[in-house]
Design goal:
It is built from three helices and three strands. By secondary structure, it is an alpha/beta fold.
Length: 72
């Protein structure tokens, strides 16, 4: 079951650790925002790198730093 981006964003704001490594089709902008929120709140997000461009992965990594993990 895929959750709405707004729900995930609220959980990330709280500081929850999120595992989005299943083949969920969230927009790159949504994933970048979740990485930013995780970094700001001290949480962590795991994202599937499947079908993502290198540029998108790099941008998410820049925003999330050590608060993001990519499952390849």
């Amino acid at each position: 079951m895929a959750h709405l981006p707004q729900t995930l964003e609220q959980l990330a704001r709280i500081g929850a650790n999120l595992d989005l490594s299943a083949q969920l089709n969230y927009l790159p902008q949504t994933l970048e925002n979740l990485a930013r929120l995780a970094a700001d709140s001290g949480g962590h997000v795991t994202i599937s790198a499947h079908n993502m461009s290198p540029q998108t992965l790099e941008q998410i990594a820049r925003v999330g730093r050590n608060h993001v993990t990519f499952r390849v």
